[in-house]
Amino acid sequence: MAVYTDITEAELAAFLADYPVGRMHAYKGIAEGVENSNFLLHLDDASYILTLYEKRVAREDLPFFLGLMEHLAEKGLSCPLPIHRNDGALIGELAGRPAAVISFLEGMWPRDPAPRHCYAVGAEMAAMHRAGADFGLTRANALSLADWRPLWNASRDDARTLRPGLGDDIKGELAFLEANWPRDLPSGVIHADLFPDNVFFLDDRLSGLIDFYFACNDLLAYDVAVCLNAWCFSRDGAFDRASGRALLEGYESERTLTAGERAALPTLARGAALRFFLTRLYDWLATPEGAFVVKKDPFEYLRRLHFHRTVGTIADYGIDDEGDEAS
Ligand SMILES: Nc1ncnc2c1ncn2[C@@H]1O[C@H](COP(=O)(O)OP(=O)(O)O)[C@@H](O)[C@H]1O
Ligand SMILES: N[C@@H](CCOP(=O)(O)O)C(=O)O
């Protein structure tokens, strides 16, 4: 569920009076999502999404997130356009929370991504990397290499009981990543959470990217590594070479990866898998039994991490440098 803060019709009508939008016909809370409270608004000019930002989104980061969506939308990317209030501001306040109204995007996220979806998301991600190059604001990644050890330390005592050997496994992984993390690769604005549930398709055409609330400045190829994990494993947990190849081909239809980025991809993929393992683990342990939220399995990402450990070079993924699948 993702309505942590409820609102009354009167509160909402008063809030919308500060926006240059039509009259409200209906609104409803949106069940999907985990971080913020989202509502679908049907107004007589169009539909919109109203988001009330909950505790994990820092108020000072909102100008970056909303400004980035506006920047990308103005450059022709399919992402939500934040609506300015009558006083020009992008951020308002509703029910004691910072709040924003953004345009509604049509489409559905793919429940069972196929290589054609991976190609499309790769191409759109690279277009986003290019379009973000002249965005004026910056934001450091708050969930990068330096943050993983403290995140593990916060969970490790409770996590040890979940799986024998987990402590040594993660300790070894952190040491490897801290010693081998690439530092001199191209960087820029990345989405950092471009999972299938954040990418909409209409039929087979990509119709939009949403949920920019982890966006930040970091290595561009780290975004590719996040997608390699999120899009290119089948339901049984096996790496899907056709999807991996399609993701990279799509990406390179818009931006060519450097030799350094290709060489670093297995390490970046290990880091990306660890990042989602650690945040899911934290949430798993912190969410009380019976809470009205679907907990995501952390060990799904530990298995992906273990797979990447077996990969020496990008060719070992079964995707050679020319983009052909190895036999
Ligand atoms: N601009 C949008 N257009 C259409 N639906 C949206 C839009 N933004 C969010 N949604 C809907 O709200 C849900 C939750 O949004 P998301 O940003 O992923 O929330 P959270 O940050 O809380 O995880 C999405 O799965 C989607 O159904
Ligand atoms: N994509 C992350 C969780 C973040 O959830 P979102 O609804 O904000 O995309 C994961 O799968 O762990």
TrEMBL record:
Catalyzed reactions per annotation: L-homoserine + ATP = O-phospho-L-homoserine + ADP + H(+)
CDD domains: HomoserineK_II
Gene3D superfamilies the record matches: 3.90.1200.10, Phosphorylase Kinase, domain 1 (3.30.200.20)
Signal peptide: none
Pfam families: APH
Domain Aminoglycoside phosphotransferase: 28-255
GO molecular function, one term: homoserine kinase activity
Swiss-Prot/TrEMBL keywords: Amino-acid biosynthesis, ATP-binding, Kinase, Nucleotide-binding, Threonine biosynthesis, Transferase
Keyword Amino-acid biosynthesis: yes
UniProt-listed GO biological process terms: threonine biosynthetic process
EC annotation from Swiss-Prot or TrEMBL: 2.7.1.39
Metabolic or biological pathway, per its Swiss-Prot or TrEMBL entry: Amino-acid biosynthesis; L-threonine biosynthesis; L-threonine from L-aspartate: step 4/5
EC class: transferase
Domain of life assignment: Bacteria
Family designation: Belongs to the pseudomonas-type ThrB family.
Designated name of the protein: Homoserine kinase
Species this protein is from: Pararhizobium mangrovi
Gene, per the UniProt record: thrB
